[in-house]
Design goal:
By secondary structure, the chain is of the alpha/beta class. Helix 1 packs parallel to helix 2 and helix 5 crosses helix 6. The chain has a single domain, classed as Vaccinia Virus protein VP39 (Rossmann fold), CATH 3.40.50.150. The protein starts with 7 loop residues before the first strand and ends in a 9-residue tail after the last strand.
Length: about 260
């Protein structure tokens, strides 16, 4: 049996912070990635199909609906972290082709060295800005899922948190492709509201998916925005609500108007 990785750290030159990977004290085979002392990602090498953070489980449920169960897909991850979702896609859809874009070169090297991807994973890594990467990828490359997991608070990069960026990302989708955006926000949901409005300019169907209490805007947390190229699919609201984590609420169509600027 391969030796389990221990604790390790790496200096990240782009941000001047330290990244650390440590074993999860409560789950055998699981690890936590922290950056600047704040937990950023959780991965379970023993069970990559299991996701610890609720917001990532919600994104995983959207991925589950993007294509028939078990069918390989093409996926683009803008913001790599510890590659939790890339591991999930490989576990649930073996044979998928995935690209991961990360601004911090040392971070991807560190994660892949300490927490290798499962055997058989086809993962292409790209170092650079998320928006720049879209234009630098091969022109004919299209994805069934594009996942943006960069926003971590109300101060979001203006060149990414805008309709023009979402339009460029939508152009990278296959006909069945979906664009998934994790928006971490503060009470009042100022960033969420602006991103709903921006995404609605780029995609035909838009929905917001979160723990039910998040939509009251009284405390910080994560809301998952999903854009589809046609109308929001019939049945997806019920499917996502049923899959949780609970309590879960999905807002789409006129129900989403209250979150638009």
């Amino acid at each position: 049996m391969a030796e389990r990785p221990g604790a390790a750290s790496r200096f990240l030159r782009t941000t001047g912070q330290h990244a650390a990977i440590e074993p999860d004290a409560f789950t055998e085979g699981a690890y936590v990635l922290s950056i600047g002392g704040a937990e950023q990602s959780h991965v379970n090498l023993a069970e990559p199909g299991e996701i610890f953070y609720e917001y990532l489980r919600r994104i995983g449920h959207v991925v589950d609906l993007a294509a028939p169960a078990g069918e390989p897909i093409s996926a683009l991850h803008l913001g790599a972290g510890a590659l939790t979702l890339a591991r999930y896609i490989q576990a649930t859809r073996p044979g998928s082709v995935q690209y991961a874009v990360e601004l911090e070169r040392e971070l991807l090297d560190f994660v892949l060295q300490q927490l290798p991807m499962p055997a058989g994973t086809e993962l292409h890594t790209v170092i650079g800005d998320a928006r720049d990467a879209l234009s630098e990828l091969p022109g004919d490359l299209r994805f069934d899922v594009v996942i943006l997991d960069i926003f971590s608070g109300p101060e979001a990069p203006e060149h990414i948190a805008c309709a023009a960026f979402y339009t460029e990302a939508a152009a990278r989708l296959t006909p069945r492709g979906v664009l998934v955006v994790n928006v971490g926000d503060e009470p009042g949901l100022t960033l969420v509201r602006s991103q709903v409005a921006a995404l609605r300019q780029a995609m035909d169907g838009v929905a917001a998916f979160a723990e039910s209490g998040m939509f009251a805007g009284r405390y910080p947390g994560n809301i998952i925005l999903t854009g589809t190229q046609g109308a929001w699919p019939a049945g997806w609201t019920d499917a996502l609500t049923a899959r949780g984590p609970h309590p879960a609420t999905v807002l789409a169509g006129v129900d989403l108007d209250a979150l638009s600027d």
